[in-house]
Amino acid sequence: MSDEPNREQGRGTDDDRPETGTGHDRPETPPGDAWTRLPAMAPATPGTPGRTGARTVVRSSSPEPAPAAPAASPSPEPVPVPAASPVRGGRASAAGRVRTAPDPTAEGPAGLGGAHGPGARTVAPSPLDPGASRDPHAIHRTLREEFPLTYDPLLRAWVLSRYADVATAFTDSRFTHGHRPGDPPCARAHVDVDVEALRSVTERTAYVLARRIAERPQADLVADFCHWLPAGTVAAAVGVPYRDMMRLVRGKAAGALAGECGGQIAVREKALASFLGNVLADPDQVAALRDAPADLVGRAWAESLRRDPPVQIAVRRTSAEVPVSGGAVPAGASVALLVGSAGRDPERFRDPDRFDPFRDDPGQLTYGSGFCPAVVLAGLEAEYALRALFRAMPRLRLAEGFRPVPTGLITRAPRTLIVRPHG
Asked: What gap in Å lies between CA 15 and CA 22, rounded to an integer?
């Protein structure tokens, strides 16, 4: 750890690209992380929608339906709306229903014909809609409350947004193709991992980085700390020289330690940035966690993963028809799991938008509960990041007027955390 980090070294991954787009924000590509990768945008074969009671099911030999074609006239054919399913927790489920939006070809003040006049059309809000990268929560709220099961043409997948459905999809064997670090396959894949050795290298790496930041009048914790701690920890654990870590750690060296979960380095960077942002944004949390025992830091870490998960959308595929809120996902379909929405579901969490390490209804969906080096390292990095930063900089705080701003569609975290090391 003797060489000064080169910020530019190891940059340039898809995850770090500026977001651009024409029509909607371009989704970020999760680096080396198969369980969050979106399905290919290949044309799909149209299926035949059908209804069974309150459920929407696709009856077709094709794996999934194609997106609806643009309307050729001011009066497109109506979208079938099934009967409402039983109320879940006081809110009605509406399988496949979508909100009403004005058609630009209609007449009237809201469109050419008014929001509900002739030519009105119905469209579902999409997690990829313009502005979703800056603030996805309004879209998530609408999906949870009105459209718990809907097909998204941009994602080419059925979308699940409620906690109960997303949690089921991560554990039900009918949802295939993908796993989270910490899911059962991890325990079988990793052997002879020395947790105490990982603890030692994590602690040492965190303190070296923190001491360097302490010498500056101002620093960016994302660029100067979060970007380096996960990679530096893996580098030290596998014996990669510090100066070579960004070139090697994201490939062969990481795989030697973490197997299938080697690509989790980028996810851990984002998770750590959100965690530090959540803690530093509230002076009360700083005071509570400055000298907190490991179990309280662990609760704060889990709470940050719930409120601001680094992975916002994960993709699975169904091997059979699966009943969910508002209907049923057909067999052989791609399913987009809105992890970011599930973590803020008010049916599961009280005051879900608030960061509260002391809440009595904790839960998170980023990592599974089984053993995995990526999961262990993520928790250790959160713990020793706080300890090292507060020990090296007891008066550490966010810069005057700065507030963390998370961005991203598929993976999400603050891009900068500007701090004053000496208060």
From this structure: 19
- CA 323 to CA 277: how far, in whole Å? 38
Phi, psi of 341 (to 5 degrees): -70, -45
How far apart are the C-alpha atoms of 69 and 47, rounded to whole Å?
Answer: 13
Quick check: 344 and 363 in contact, CB under 8 A? no
pTM of the entire predicted model? 0.73
- Report CA torsion sign: 288, 271, 369, 186: negative
Averaged over successive runs of 10 residues, the pLDDT of the chain (423 residues) comes to: 39 36 36 36 34 35 39 34 35 42 36 36 83 93 96 96 97 90 75 82 94 95 94 78 60 56 81 98 92 94 97 97 96 98 98 96 92 88 97 96 94 97 89
Dig out the tokens for 326 from the structure. Answer: 């508002």
Dihedral of CA atoms 34, 40, 45, 50 in degrees, nearest 10, equals 50
- Specify whether the CB–CB gap between 318 and 331 falls below 8 A: yes
Task: Give, in degrees to the nearest 5, the angle at Cα 138 between 133 and 144.
Answer: 115
How confident is the model at residue 251, as a pLDDT? 55
Return the closest-CA partner of residue 333 out of 63, 95, 149, 148.
63
Task: Using DSSP bridges, classify how beta strands 327-329 and 322-324 pair: parallel, antiparallel or unpaired.
Answer: antiparallel
Q: Which amino acid is at 253?
A: A
Which residues partner with 414 through β-bridges?
406
Output the six-digit token pair for 92: 């009605």
3-state secondary structure of 93: strand
Q: Which two tokens stand for residue 370?
A: 């089984």
Chain centre to alpha carbon of residue 52: 33
CA-based angle 18:19:23, to the nearest 5? 155
